[in-house]
């Protein structure tokens, strides 16, 4: 047998780890030197400078003769790191883009090395059982009273919301076209999912205060349920722009009263369930027919780590599907678990491994502590802004999003401050438009952020504010 060419060793089997170890040394070195070269939350210079650096370092990307694994890994990982927006930097706080835990990233390496595919048991024997157990564990946090809660693993909030709308459409198939009611604060994926599923455009209720108003929902449901028996009310527990939570118990009451189905998008706020201090903020969540969770937001997982929790298996029956090469009836009858009905995808990464490792390593209390720390950081930032004579605070944070602006700054000034901080590589802040105009948005997801980091962030903004 001829010797295998360099760089073609496999990651699995008993020899895999031996092949991986020196490659990992190279990767870890490149992660270190890349972060040192960047020395901030993102690279300076804006898109042109970053694109030039990537082209200079990485082209040609399909050389006639390869560079070998170490050079390729060193070059590309270094370049990607030096040019990254790194959510581990406390000044990288624009989006629901979390810094992953090292232990979750380490688990993800094992997932890549083993490469189970979650579409049939014969490709993922232990991984499928781990997925079942972990999904049920997380679903039980959402639905503590349910006898058989379950959860689907998804690529994130978008896919979970799509599945929730699909399951609602199928459950009401005989009752006419499903009408969706959501707030103007709902994530855009609700609208896209309706479009994708061929449903009428959702009725979007105004949310001038950032959350759905029960009286407005009542009026809307009264009118709608008089005409159609297929209505889905979607609420949000952690809005994208402000981290606000809709009044879940009142909305659940209204859904009950009007015979509407209820979906809650808790992509952002869901992990408050881990926190002894904050979990009551989510009271009412368990009354939803479906709940979106997303642990690549406030759950410190590498992308992807989405879930759709349901109170029982009956909710998932519309997803049942058969493909003879994956789940033939005789295999299922012989006891091979049928995985195909757990996703619309076929080949699927074992994203559950990193989640399971995190749950086991930190426990409910450890994760709750990370949630508490992050919420405390947001409150500290709000306090600093409140106490500062040159800043205006939009509102006290419910989760970890803080909207603020230099007092009197107009929209153009704010947009310019944000872009200048980005192109200088000093800070990554988001923006949010509310009825009171544009605001700078700090979405804090780093549980290790210190008050000093927040003071520096405010000084950076102040330094770019015209007097
Ligand atoms: C409330 C909410 N729902 C859904 C999503 C979509 O999640 P993903 O980007 O993981 O698909 C987001 C993303 O920020 C969100 O804020």
Structure characterization notes:
By secondary structure, the protein is α/β, with parallel strands linked by helices. It is built from 13 helices and twelve strands. α6 packs across α7 and α8 (214-227) packs parallel to α9. Pyridoxal-5'-phosphate binds at residues 96, 156-158, 161, 187, 189, 236, 238, 240, 265, 267-268, 294, 306. Pyridoxal-5'-phosphate is lined by residues 96, 156-158, 161, 187, 189, 236, 238, 240, 265, 267-268, 294, 306.
Keywords, separated by commas or semicolons:
alpha/beta; 467 residues; binds pyridoxal-5'-phosphate; seven-stranded mixed β-sheet; five-stranded mixed β-sheet
Radius of gyration: 24 Å
Q: Which overall shape is indicated by the principal axes computed on the Cα atoms?
A: globular
Q: Give helix and strand order, one letter per element, not per position.
A: HHHEHHEHEHEHEHEEEHHEEHEEH
Beta content: 5-15%
Q: Would you count the extended β strands for me?
A: 12
Please state the structural category.
Answer: alpha/beta
Largest sheet: 7 strands, mixed
Terminal-residue CA separation = 74 Å
Poorly predicted runs of 5 or more residues: none
* Tally of helical segments: 13
Average pLDDT for all residues: 97
Biggest sheet, strands in spatial order? Answer: 2-8-7-6-5-3-4
Q: Roughly how much helix do the residues carry, as a percent range?
A: 40-55%
Q: Name the hetero compounds present.
A: pyridoxal-5'-phosphate
